[in-house]
Design a protein that fits this description.
Length: 109
């Protein structure tokens, strides 16, 4: 019995310029430490970086560049907003533990 040869793999589709620009912006954000910067510094950094992205990807339309910027700005936002109304981690854990009821023990006679 002979084994069938696997069909040759087709080359993966190249990512679009929009995908490349988005990924490059995310990479820059992580490498440059923008996440820890003040909002006004993030805006200034984003302005400069989007100028770079515009020069690097001349095929992108204004609408696509706006999409990349929006994604970058969202990427810079914290996942959880901290404030006076935010619960501490210990309060959240205590509430979660209180909601879990202990299982009743079964006794066989």
């Amino acid at each position: 019995m002979t084994k069938k040869k696997a069909a040759p793999r087709s080359p993966a589709a190249a990512p679009s310029a929009l995908d490349q620009a988005r990924d490059e912006l995310f990479s820059h954000i992580l490498r440059c430490g923008v996440l820890d910067a003040a909002p006004e510094h993030q805006k200034e950094w984003m302005d400069d970086t989007m100028q770079y992205v515009t020069d690097r990807y001349p095929d992108l339309k204004a609408e696509e560049l706006a999409t990349v910027r929006t994604l970058g700005e969202r990427f810079c936002q914290p996942v959880v907003k901290r404030g006076p109304e935010a619960e501490t981690e210990t309060e959240v854990v205590a509430e979660a533990e209180a909601e879990v009821e202990p299982e009743a023990e079964t006794v066989e006679a």
